[in-house]
Amino acid sequence: MKHEVNVPCTVCGGSESQLLHAIDYQRFSYPGLFQIRQCQGCGLIFNSPRLTDDGIVRLYDGNYYVFLEPPTDALSRVATLMHQTVATVSAQVPDKRMLEVGCAKGYLLAIMAELGWTVAGVELSEDAAEHARHQLGQQVYTGTLQAHVTSDQFSPYPLVVSTDVIEHVTDLEGFVRACHRAVAPGGLLLLGTPNADSIHRHRQGERWLGFNPFHIFLFNRHNLGTLLARHGFEVVQAYTCNNTDDPPPLMPQDSPLKKFARRGLQSTGLMAIVRAVMAHKPSASEAGPHGKNLSLPDAVRHTAQELRQRPPYFSTTDGSHPRSAACLGDNLVVVARRQAEPGAGA
Are 119 and 152 in contact (CB under 8 A)? Predict the structure, then answer.
């Protein structure tokens, strides 16, 4: 069962959209065609008609968060993500407290804790949350951010981080309202998501790595900024990562997970491929303790130590690329400051 969504557009209120692609995702066990439309008013890209919320849950089949990456590989990937995102704003957060929304198995939380931050997470997957709690000793709430912020025990954070999450959210308004409640007055929200204005999207069409049946909204810096502004945020910075002309293929030929591609969504490995590709997983030589015979706590400490030695992201080849400031790379990062109550000044 599918239904039409985003009419009127949740960002601009417009009712006109055009069909960009209709993709057959049989390898993901997706029923029928995945239709990708673009709002004519603000450029928001979205899937419509879309599966019902229950259908989307069944599509994930409970396995999305069971990554098959070895922990050291996951730490390498997350270290690069941290370098590209949190590290760029950490100096603006004197009170080193961070909430990660969609913290998965807790690797970023563990790295940030090792770097001296007080951290907590929110995660839908009980299995992933349990890993974060029991294997990494992190404080993680299992459930939605919307539910978490209504708890009597919840206190807002000066920094809230959510990467590779908002493109999966069915209730954008509810999610951004919850983000506002999660951020302390004057604090920062950092969102990372595939970039709808990516040069590679225009060049590769439906083959672009941002298009898959699990990404139901794709933003550019302007429409994401509009959505945030309506809920009491002011965008203070926007840039992109992964700005080069050599993005990874949708299904890396050398991936040890490739054998799972023929099993459809029932495979836990297929979702790990999607997330790893979207995060542009680095090679072992680029980050982290891959290949070293370390315990998980020692691997976290090693990764944190390595991160302390990295140059600032904006001085790297990728961070100083002209596409970064122009927001034309594959992964969009938007940093917004909480200003007012939702709806104020809208």
Answer: no
Q: Of 91, 157, 102, which is closest to residue 128 (Cα–Cα)? A: 102
Q: Are strands 118-123 and 97-101 parallel, antiparallel or unpaired?
A: parallel
Averaged pLDDT, 112-133: 94
Rounded CA gap, 63 and 80, in Å? 24
For residue 262, which phi and psi values (nearest 5 degrees)?
-85, 0
Contact between residue 114 and residue 299 where contact means Cβ atoms under 8 Å apart: no
The encoded tokens of residue 326 equal 């122009």
Q: What is the reported pLDDT for 334?
A: 98
> If you search the block for the tokens 């969609």, which residue do you land on?
102
Q: Structure pTM?
A: 0.86
The label of the residue with tokens 């890396």 reads 252
How many residues comprise the chain?
Answer: 346
Three-state SS string across 141-162, please? EECCHHHHCCCCCCCCEEEEEE
Q: Is 261 helix (H, G, I), strand (E, B) or coil?
A: helix
CA-nearest of 78, 6, 72, 68 to 42 is 6
Residue 61's pLDDT is: 55
Give the phi and the psi of residue 247 in degrees, each rounded to 5. -70, 155
C-beta of residue 138 within 8 angstroms of C-beta of residue 99: no
Q: What is the pLDDT of residues 301-346, one digit of tens each?
A: 999 999 999 999 999 999 999 999 999 999 999 999 999 676 544 3
CB-CB contact of 142 with 151 (8 Å): no
Q: How far apart are the first and last CA of the chain?
A: 35
Residue 282, number of CB atoms within 10 A of its CB? 17
What is d(CA 164, CA 171) in angstroms, rounded to the nearest whole number? Answer: 15
Contact 264, 29 (CB under 8 A): yes
- For 36, the 3-state DSSP assignment is strand
